[in-house]
Amino acid sequence: MAGKKYLETGKIVTTHGIKGEVKVYPWCDAPEFLLDFDRLYLDKGKRAVEVEECRIHKNMAILKLKGVDTVEQAVSYRGKVLYVDRDEIELAEGEYFVQDLIGLTVRDADSGKEYGKITDVTETGANDVYHVAFPDGSVKLIPAIKDVVIRTNIDEGVMEIRPLRGLFDDED
Fold it and tell me: Which segments constitute the Ribosome maturation factor RimM PRC barrel domain (predicted)?
């Protein structure tokens, strides 16, 4: 299994209301992702917390955690990062965790030429964009579309691409 077992999914930024709810700034594709979990984790996965209720409010998740029933109790969670267990998540074919893409070696699908490594992923709405650091220190952006990304193998640590004409300035 590639990557870390526990994945950062958001941060508790403040309390909400008077019944011990917390407001979570999500670090996932959409706050609705958090609606699927009965259990989240704190302390890099070392401590499980049960989710009694979760709802979305203005692109934030409002969580009611079991045993947290007052504002005073909720305050102690402020600033804490929430994690999910990757084993409790089902990704569709062709979907990956961003942290598993970071560090992949990017190669040409036809020639095998090594371009560099993925250093970041930007979500644009239409499609993700991968930041590839080349050996000369430059960073080039490639769109995460099926015409460009031919194969991704997390276990091998490789992404094979077929650059569109003009994608890299120094090539045809």
Answer: 99-161
Secondary structure (H, E, C), the chain:
CCCCCEEEEEEEEEEECCCCEEEEEECCCCHHHHHHCCEEEEHHHCEEEEEEEEEEECCEEEEEECCCCCHHHHHCCCCCEEEEEHHHCCCCCCCCCHHHHCCCEEEECCCCCEEEEEEEEEECCCCEEEEEECCCCCEEEEECCCCCEEEEECCCCEEEECCCCCCCCCCC
Q: Residue 45: which of 90, 85, 99 has the closest Cα?
A: 85
Whole-structure pTM over 0.85, yes or no? no
- For residues 13 and 66, state if they share a domain: yes
Closest by CA to 29, choosing from 16, 13, 10, is 10
Residue 166 in any domain: the answer is no
In a 10 Å sphere around its CB, with 0-12 CB exposed, 13-18 middle and 19+ buried, how is residue 141 labelled? exposed
Asked whether residue 45 falls in the same domain as residue 82, the answer is: yes
Band (161; pLDDT cuts 50, 70, 90): very high
What pLDDT score does 1 carry? 41
Residues contacting 155, CB < 8 A, separation 6+: 2
Same-domain check for residues 13 and 59 = yes
